[in-house]
Amino acid sequence: RRMSSSSASATSSTEFLSNNNGGDNAQDKLIDALNSVDSSSRGWFSKMRYEWNLLIVPKLPTFRRHISHVLFFLVFPCLAVAAVLFYMFDNPMAGNTGTSISWWIIFVGARQAITMGLTWVGQVFWVEILALRSRLFNTIVGPYVSLAIIQSSGWPYNICFWAVLDFILLFGNYPFPRHWLFWQNKLDIFNANNPVKGVVNSNGYLRLLFTCIFVGIAASLKRLFLAVYLGRRTVAHFNAEMEKVFAKMILIGEIAALAKEIENKHEGFRGTYNPDDEEKMVRFREIILNDSCSSADGSPKRSSPSRPGGRKVLNVPGESKGDTPEPSQGPKKIDQPGEESPDTRASRQQQSSFLDSSTTEGAEKPVYSSSSNVKLMNLLEEWEEPELISGSKAVATVKDLVNFRKAVSYMDDKYPFSHAFGPANTRELTISSAQTVYDRLMLAAGDNQVLPFSTLAVLATAPDGSLMDVRIKSLIRLLRPDRQGNLTKLDFVKSIDEVYKQQRLLRASISSSNRIDNAFEKIVNCFFYFFLAIIAFTILGWANVWTVFLSFNTFFLGFSFLFGAAASNYFEGLLLIFVRRPYDIGDRIATSNPNKDTSPDGSSTWYVDNVTLFTTTVRFATTNEVATYSNGSIAQLRIINANRSPKGIVSVLIKFGLETPFNKVTVFRAAVENFIKARPREWIALSGFRATSVEADFGYVEYKIIAQHREKWQNIGPILQSKADLSSFILEVTKKLDMKYESPPMPVNLSATGSMNIRGLFADDGDVEPQSGLRDVNVSADDLQDVANLFEVRKD
């Protein structure tokens, strides 16, 4: 019953999270799911009535209010003044034009006011109702026409359609443009008795109307071009990251829906976790332990290094197919260097049998379990899959731009993770809602103190009842349970909080990108409206405008030599910010000379506080000192962006004495590897363990331990804390294994001649130098586990 209750929701989002190449992207599926309207059963008339009741009826009060304001505050007062002049003051003329003053008042104050009112009503109808809210209209005219109408909102639409209405109602050499009520004889003020001469059919009026139409259409097309161009840049820049964030948000919403269902039917769910039924838990643990795609971004995880001849792991004396690691029984002594341990001998025999069976002709290929495959992967050298980049990138369509804008607006909603999760528009509300969801899930955990990860098996269950590995891995990458398949409340809230921070940082990056796009649009507007004004004046018949333009051009040409260098620097900075886009607001960056290598220990970083087309304001991460760069000054520098860098890699150096046996080094490496594996929320893998320097004169061998963290260098705090814990653990293990290296005091040679026996100076006369590796040190695996437990306090 528990599996079938949410199988539909689990199946619906499986395709979304399974990285299929077919179908729509993440945004389209989310927007379609949120904004779909089932209108397949409606007829044409029903659709029209539905659109009328939904879109037109709510706007009718606004129409009535605007029309009443135009009539009572503009049209009627102008008509009253014109009537007074016409009937009481003998209709005075406006100079020698042959047109009366009363006609001008009616023409400008009444008739033009009516056409402007109709223009405003048309803008509300076409833009705010049809283009923005009507799906039927968008389907009929297409996305580009809809976007063009939307972008024309404001003065471009008003002057263009006002000129069109004037062409229809107020221009021409026939009676109607002169007097709308020319056909009646009762009111002489509205017919041919009110004289007018050469206004509605004049050449200047015609040029003015053509200019308004041209300027309105040109401004609308400019807005359309910039909207599509800048929108495609924004979508191309943020679409991949938004898909990842929305995939996690949808998965959190499904978990919240499951928790809500558990709360509603908690009596049926109570005690569903049966410790005797380990099928799901074993499957979860197997994927947690052997997941080859456990990195947060879905990239293949690099296996930890190992040496041929046996892979020694603490607390795992032996493995069988499908079994989970069990603690070793009793203390385990370190083998002598001259002896061969049973694990090493068995591993060597396994490799030999594998090679023999693989080279035998005609032999049947053996079938290996997943544990055997993992062992073979550990025996192979490290290798990462190359990233395949297609030759051409798909251009975002107008539908993608609209969906992207809707997705961004959805991120500002009070319930971004779904209503089942609860309010999450602030961090405090998100943490509170996450705790509520965890408490609901615990209703199905029985007597367990922490949440078993198998409780979420409903979300990873196929319609046939089997578990889907892709869904399990998605849940693991999101929640990061421990190696026993359990999830504490703190870890659950941390996972939700991490997604919330990713979502808010993405929203802030999109907002800062829009600010840069707006600044770029202002620069384009300066050049566009300058040349548009020249063309408009030319259409109006002002031919001397070109003479004025050429005179100003000669004037500015003389000063161009003074600003040439500054203009070049500004243009270079403009290309840096608008084309290269090496950073966004909130990113942690570092600048350095590209001709010199950066420090392997990391770089001093700055937070980007503000970005304009001219300058970049940064804040030193260590001291919070604020500085300002001109964009052109940093265009030639190497810019390291910690937010766009992969997961952080840290290294720790350790020195061992030359007398340290190699089997101790092997046990030390296994202890470090187990320490890293026991913290899947902090570390991805042990990436390297190798000897980097052998100093025989000083009596030590230097090893470098390399590990990859789950955080980027953008979030440097957890990386430094984890590195400190790892360094402290390494120090404690070296003490426990008696591997601590102490630098000998440097001798002082007072003789002027002769050579110095370095090794003889370090030994006393009565000392006998022990043979390497012959000392018997009794160290149990439980002792090393006690050292590892010292670092569990901070996690709790």
How would you summarize the topology of this molecule?
Blueprint lengths: L1 H4 L1 H11 L8 H10 L8 H13 L3 H29 L12 H33 L1 H7 L1 H9 L3 H15 L5 H4 L24 H62 L1 H4 L9 H12 L51 H18 L10 H10 L18 H14 L15 H16 L8 E2 L16 H11 L6 E2 L1 H52 L4 H15 L4 H17 L7 E5 L13 E6 L3 E6 L5 E5 L7 E4 L5 E11 L4 H16 L5 E13 L4 E13 L3 H21 L21 H5 L18 H9 L7
Antiparallel strand pairs: 1-2, 3-4, 3-7, 4-5, 5-6, 8-10, 9-10
Helix pairs in contact: 2-11, 3-16, 5-6, 6-7, 6-8, 6-9, 7-8, 8-11, 9-11, 11-16, 11-17, 11-19, 17-19, 22-23, 23-25
Could you list some keywords that capture this structure?
796 residues, alpha+beta, 5-stranded antiparallel beta sheet, 3-stranded antiparallel beta sheet, disordered N terminus
Distance between the termini: 35 Å
Write out the strand line-up for the largest beta sheet, numbering strands in chain order. Answer: 6-5-4-3-7
Number of strands: 10
Q: Roughly how much helix do the residues carry, as a percent range?
A: 40-55%
- The total of helices stands at 25
The chain-level mean pLDDT equals 75
What percentage of amino acids are in beta strands?
5-15%
Principal-axis shape equals elongated
Q: Can you tell me the residue ranges where pLDDT is under 50 for at least 5 consecutive residues?
A: 1-41, 291-371, 758-776
Largest sheet: 5 strands, antiparallel
* Overall SS class: alpha+beta
Compute the CA-based radius of gyration. 38 Å
Structure, described:
The chain is an alpha+beta fold and 796 residues long. The chain has 25 helices and ten strands. The strands form three sheets. The protein has a five-stranded antiparallel beta sheet with strand order 6-5-4-3-7. A three-stranded antiparallel beta sheet has the order 8-10-9, with helices on one face. It has a two-stranded antiparallel ribbon with strand order 1-2. Helix 2 packs across helix 11 and helix 6 crosses helix 9 (155-169). The radius of gyration is 38 Å and the shape is elongated.
